[in-house]
Structure prediction request, 445 residues.
Amino acid sequence: MSAAALVSEDVLVRLLPSSLEWLTLVLLAGAFFPRVRGRWVHGLSVAALLALNWLSLPLLQDRTALQYLFVISLLVLWGLLVLRVNVFQGLFVALLGLTYLMAVDYVILSVAATRMPLRQMAADRALSCCVIYSTRLIELVAVAIIYIWSREYIRRRAPDTIGWITAILFLAPVFGLCAYLSRVLWMSQAVYDHFVITAAFVLLAELGAVCLLYFSGQKQEAVRSNAILRQDLKLEQEHIAALESSYARQRAQTHDFKNKLAVLRTMAEQDAPREEFASYLSSVLAEDIPGALCVNTHRTAADITLSQKVPRARDMGIEFQMQLDDLSAFPMPDDALVVVLTNLIDNAVEACRQIPPEGRRYIMLKMKMTSRYGILNIENTTAGPVPVRYNTVPTTKKDRLSHGYGLKNVAAMIGRSDGMYFIEYREDDGVFRFCASVPRTAAAV
Prediction:
């Protein structure tokens, strides 16, 4: 094909609107899936899409079915290579985007047709270009608004493959209807008045497909969260039982040790023979001296947990400070309190470990009791800024299923006790803070 054909007037007239369509599709895909490659790679891939679109226009401009197939295939391939999504995810976004573009076209062309027949409008090149460009810009701006305001909410839902397939099966007939109506639109002036209603139906069907997809994702996320939460609770309960048993043995050992010290004191007061005293003292020193809990809040579950976690953190070079009230009436059950303390301290320790040794590794835990609330506040320094979105911290680890549930478990336990919490990151001093309040009406068992 000659170069003149590639830059013909007809191609140039179609080039800009088609490019805007592709930008709309790319932006829509970005609302569903985060960018996983660098900015340059992502930008070059979009430029490649636009170049392929430009090269294909002379070949496909009069072959609507092939044009749809080309767009869907290219968008799915782009999703696989650049966004690293699977085929079903790419296919859903492609069908959703094309259906959306056709539905908006129907609305605007139907309104324009009330002023002038479409065939007469098409004969006026300047007027038709104005309508087409305006339509594409409206479509792009609408998707840009969705991208800016809703992408975090959309991305938080993670449907499984069955959810994506179900949404595709729901959307595919709607796409087929739109493709059929694209041909009917130019055949009869009488159908123009009905296309606004049809377009409204299509847009509602698209909204239904998205809701179906993300209700499925919400269900799957809840199933996964509950499964991991149950497993975590089981492990924590076993941990509590083991620590309580160890605590009971330690108390018994401490009691025996005190009795032996009392015997030594009595022997000294009664001037027992030196050999007898020395022999008994040697037997006492040969035994292991029981350790002591590093905290005493009159809440066994909290004492055991903190006595285990705090020394380990300090051994890592972390400055761990505590301000603790009498927690015997802290309004959370023991299992929930252990889950909250364990996850919060583990997260804080992990954040401090990422700080270079010469940096400040600091954790402050405060637990206070007021007349109405139990207050828990933990602060720790971090190696860098921590993104806080919607009162949670998105995980940066690749295995998102296995990570990121620490704060979710904490939130679940606080919610179970009718409490509230908030998270913040202070950029001025590089401190991450978690604060929760639990009403004293919540029974501690």
User: Anything to note?
Assistant: Residues 195-269 form the longest helix (75 residues). Residues 236-286 form one domain.
